[in-house]
Amino acid sequence: MEPKVRLFRDGRMVKETTGKIGETLLEIVTSAGEFLDAPCGGLGKCGKCLVRLSPDGDEVKACQTKLEGDTDIYLPSEMDDMKIADTGEGAKHNSGGFTGPYGIAVDIGTTTVVAHLTDLPTGTRIATASGVNAQRPFGADVISRIQYCAENGHEKLTRAIRGQLADLIREDIKKSGVSKDDIKYISIAGNTIMEHLYADMSPVGMGVVPFKPVSLFGDEGPAGEDMPVAQDAVCYMAPCVSSYVGGDITAGMMACDLEEDMGPTLYLDIGTNGEIALKNGDKYFVCATAAGPAFEGAEISHGMAAISGAVNHARWENGKLQYDVIGDVAPVGLCGSGLLDVLALMLDIGAVDETGRMLTPREAEPDVAPYLGTDENGKPAFFINREAGVCITGEDVRKLQLAKAAIAAGIQTLMYHAEVKEIECFLLCGGFGSFMDKRSAARIGLFPMSLLPVTKTMGNTAGEGAALTVWSAAAREKLNRLRDKCEYIELSDSFHFNEQFVEQMMFEE
Rounded distance, CA 415 to CA 412, Å? Predict the structure, then answer.
C-alpha cells in the first residue's frame, strides 16, 4: 500500500493524496496539483521550496527530501496575492453589450497566466482570471523547464498548463454566468517554449544548437476536449519569430500599434526572459537576452515573488533606508522591483562601487556603514532589515549585474544592427516592467538614462494583443504580417553583443 500524504496550508488540510517511497516531496505536491515554488526546477540550488513536516518543525527542501512513509506536509502560504499585470495600455478594442458567442484571450507567461473572457462580436472584455504559472515548480525560467523536459519528457508540463488554463476558463465562466458551449474561440500568446508546451510539443530542440523549434505557429486548430469550451471551438496560437522571441512579443508589438508611422521605437519586455525589439521604418530587429530569473527574485538569497512580505520599493531619505512591504507586514524578502530599488540606492549612497563590489563597513560613509556587514554564511551583505535577516549579498549584486548587462547589451546591439543613433519612443512592457521604478532601472544601467524622458510603461501588452486577435480576423492577419517583417539577431553569434556585455557590466559612478 502506498504511503498516505496529507497536505496542509495556513493551518488547514487542503488535500490528501498518496506517494511512492523515494519520491521527493516536491514531486508529490506538484502531482497533487498544489503549488510550491521551485525556481531552480528541483535542483536544490535556490532553497525556495521549503516545507515543514510538522506545524512547528524545521523547514526542509521539498526537492531534496524523499518520502519514507505516511507524511504530513505543511506548505507555505499560497501565492494567490501575487501582483499580476493582467492589463495593458496597448491598442484598445471596441466596447458594447454582451451578445455572444464568446472567446478566451490568453497570455501564457513564464511566471503568470492571464485569461480574458471576451464577447466576440464587440470585443468587450467580460471577465478576467489569472494566476502563477503552474509549471513554475519545474523551474523559474524557460531554460530550466527545457532541461526538465530533456530529462523527463514534456508531458507533465503540458498537463500542468492545459489544466491551469481550463481552471481559469471555469473561473471566468463562474464570474460571468456564460455557458461553456457559447465559448467558440481561444487565442493564445506566449513565448515559443510556452506555446510548445501548451500545444503538447517538446521544446527540447530549442535548448541546443541550432535552437530549432517544432513550430512557429500563427495558425488555428481544435481547442481540445480538455478545455471547458464548445466542442467545435477553435484555438489560435500567436506567431513566433524564433525559439526565444515568441508570440507574446509579436502580439505585444501589435497591441502597441508599432506599425503606425513613428520614429525609431524600442520595445522591451522584461520577465523571466528579456526580449527586445527595435522598429526602424518598416523593419523590426528583435533579439532575446539570457538575463535569467534574477529580476523575478529567483536565485537571489532573499528574493521572492511579489506577494505579502516582499519589499517592493525602497528609498534613501534623511540618511536612512525606508522601504515598503506588500501587505504592510514584516519583511520576509525582496521581489524584483524591491531588488532594483535597493541596488539603485546602494549605488547612490556608495554601498556598491562601479565594479559591483560591495564595500565593507569601514570603507563606507558613517550613515551607510550600519547597513553593511556579513550574512549568516559570512558573505558581504547590505541589510534591509537586520532583525528579519533580510539582505542583499555581494553574490546577489553580481547576478543582478549580469542580468542588467545582458539587457543593456542587447539594446545596444539592436541599435547597431538597425543603424539607429537615437530612440524616439521606449515602450516598457511585461509584468516586471509594470511594477519597477523606471529611474531605478536606468540608475543600475538596465537601459540608458537618456531614455527616461521618452519611456512609457505599457503593462501586459501580450494579453492586449491576445485580446485583439481573439475577436478580430484582421488583427490575426496583421500579426502574421508583422512577424514576417522581423529580423532576428542571434546574440550568441554577435561580436558586438559580447563587446557590449563586458562594457555594460560596469555601473556608472
Answer: 5
DSSP string, 406-441: HHHHHHHHHHHHHT-S--SEEEEEHHHHHHS-HHHH
> Is the CB of residue 132 less than 8 Å from the CB of residue 35?
yes
Residue 88 burial (C-beta neighbours within 10 Å; 0-12, 13-18, 19+): buried
DSSP tag of 325: E
Residue whose cell numbers read 528583435: 286
Lookup: cell for 462: 501580450
Residue located via cell numbers 476536449: 225
- CA geometry: angle 143, 149, 150, nearest 5 deg: 90
Q: At what angle do helices 247-255 and 461-471 cross, to 10 degrees?
A: 80
What beta strand segments (E) does 56-101 contain? 59-61, 71-75
Q: Distance between CA 30 and CA 47 in Å, rounded?
A: 17
CA atoms of 15 and 6, how far apart (whole Å): 6
Residue-wise pLDDT tens for the chain (509 aa)? Answer: 888 999 888 788 888 889 889 989 988 888 887 778 777 777 777 777 888 888 888 889 888 999 988 899 998 875 555 555 555 444 343 344 566 799 999 999 988 899 999 999 988 899 999 998 999 889 878 888 999 999 999 999 999 999 999 999 999 999 999 999 999 999 999 999 999 999 999 999 999 988 999 999 999 999 999 999 999 999 999 999 999 999 999 999 999 988 776 789 999 998 767 899 999 999 999 999 876 667 777 778 999 888 889 999 999 999 999 999 999 999 999 988 999 999 999 999 999 999 999 999 999 999 999 999 999 889 999 999 999 999 999 999 999 999 999 999 999 999 999 999 999 999 998 877 777 899 999 999 999 999 999 999 998 899 899 999 999 999 999 999 999 999 999 998 899 999 999 999 999 87
102 DSSP β-pair partners = 119, 183
Q: Is residue 359 a contact partner of residue 350, using CB atoms and an 8 Å limit? A: yes
pTM of the model: 0.82
Residue 99 makes CB contacts below 8 A (sequence gap 6+) with 119, 121, 122
CA–CA separation, 16 and 272 (whole Å) = 33
Residue 218 in grid coordinates: 500563427
* Cell numbers given for 241: 519569430
Q: Is the previous residue joined to 239 through a cis bond, with omega within 30 degrees of 0? A: no
Q: Give Cα 28 to chain centroid, integer Å.
A: 25
Tell me how crowded residue 155 is: count the other CB atoms within 10 A of its CB. 12
Which letter, b or e, does each residue of 112-139 get, where b requires 16 or more Cβ atoms within 10 Å of its Cβ?
Answer: bbbbbbbbbeebbbbbbbbbbbbbbbbb
> Which residues share a beta bridge with 291?
none
Report residue 290 CA to chain centroid gap.
13
CA distances from 502 to 183, 401, 404, 420, 505 (A): 51, 11, 11, 21, 5
